[in-house]
Amino acid sequence: MRNIIVVDCISTGINFIGDIINRGFNPIVLELKSAADPELYQAMLKHNYDEINEKFDMIYEKDTYEETLEEVRKADPVLVLPGNEHGVILASKLSNDLGLLCNPIENLDAMTLKNEMHNRLAEKGLRYIRGKPVRSVDEAIKFYDDESLSEVVIKPVYSAGSDGVRICTNRQEMIDSLDDVFNRKNYYGDDIDEILIQERIKGEEYIVNTVSCQGFHRVTLIWKYHKVKTNEGAIIYDTVETINELGIAEAEMVEYAYKVADALGIEYGPIHGEYMIDEEGPVLIEVNCRPCGGHMPAKFLDRISGQHETDSILDSYLKPVRFFEKVKQRYRLQAHGALKMFIVPEDIIAKSAPMVSISPNLKSFFKADFAEMAKEGIFYVKTEDLDSNCGIIYLVNEDKSLLKDDISFLRSLEKYAFALVLSPELEKIKDLDEDKLKNDLKNVADSIEDYGTGLLITDQFLDTDSIHQVAIEDLANVNDEFDYVIVNLNKSIVEKRDDLTVEVLLGILKRIKVGGIVFVPETTYEYVPGQRKGIEALMLDLDLRIEVPPYGIDAGVIASKNVIS
Known about the structure:
The chain has about 575 residues and is α+β, with helices and mostly antiparallel strands. It has 18 helices and 24 strands. The strands form five sheets. The chain has an eight-stranded antiparallel sheet with strand order 13-12-9-10-11-14-18-16, with helices on both faces.
């Protein structure tokens, strides 16, 4: 069987495997060596390989390029393709030496090195960002002063994601950031000995993904970034959303993206291009000649645009007739898509991810990608780049407003109740004062009994006939409808993991009838991750409406269900 080799088959690149098989070829993954932490690297690879449902063969990078070339030659591949950024250089060299379809090898530096791609744009008379690669802080200071710069961006010359990228608003910030980044390793675990310093361009940031065949280019998908800057100057991802209809200056950006592809000499395969639009128009930030990242499932992309990038890339090499048919088609998306990347506010050891239970209730939910927690928990560092986000929610909806509502909700939850994203399982109050809990609960029940007939789901039973009381384990036997429900759970959830507590509470809140009211007092919400803000987030997750509290009812959250969700 004819073989196609995928170098560095991770992230969205894993979609190649099914596409290769569907075309009647045999997929082979060429796994790269890495200078990064071996244990973390292997765990990352396993996470990616585990998501591939199809069978594939494996070969491994050798100690020398010549040995790797001979190993690949034995497979007699039809194509050698990069699955991710780290595979671009090796895949290009192998393809060139084996005489396979590929981009001209003389363009490799412009395809992979962030300074060289801008040098190429300058040579071709295209707009570029002024910058210089430096090997020391002193060299950077000289360039900064000679060019009369104010705000600058620094980044490793060769890396990926937002690794090592810093925005510096003045000279001292630049010096401090350079000291920091020079003492780090790049995305691939290599020492950083050269950093690109560039003038800062302020504008809106986009992704334009293109695929090329015989030097012709077509757009596959356009996205728009929303990023935030940390106090340390790092640029971190919040969301990326599809552009379904072009706005002002965006068509010009696409034209510019085609010119960038021409300038870099791209003849085959993908460009994941990142661009900025400011008052002067579009300008390239950087290109990556591999599939767009973000670990996006093929079915997710198909739902958005009726195609997915790895399949379109194979068209450019194997089915040029199909490629050129798609060139003639208008850019029309079937739905709006987005990725919400979660930002870790500080170093934590997370022991559960309640967001996995929360996110499926979103109207635009497609998939949640969070690491499975080990018994002892997983250590997460404060987010400082793309790779240190703690999880992704994939959203897709034909109605843009519903998708926007979901993004707004997730941002609010992330800001005010992060324990519902990742929970460190903080110690709960386990020595329960039953008498105090009963007294507080009786005050709550007395204050809202005028609402009508009520149900009390409780761990502490009251000596009263004014409200129907039931333990949580007996809730399934309650079939009557009530005007209001009080949720008083503490003893039954105090020993549970936070994600299991969330599942229990969501299950109860889903039972609220249309027109019904639910009251969650402090006797419950202080045992919920995020406490009061946490229970409010769970209510909003289920489209309950948080009510304005009436005078005289304190330390409790009231919500109603006004529509069928």
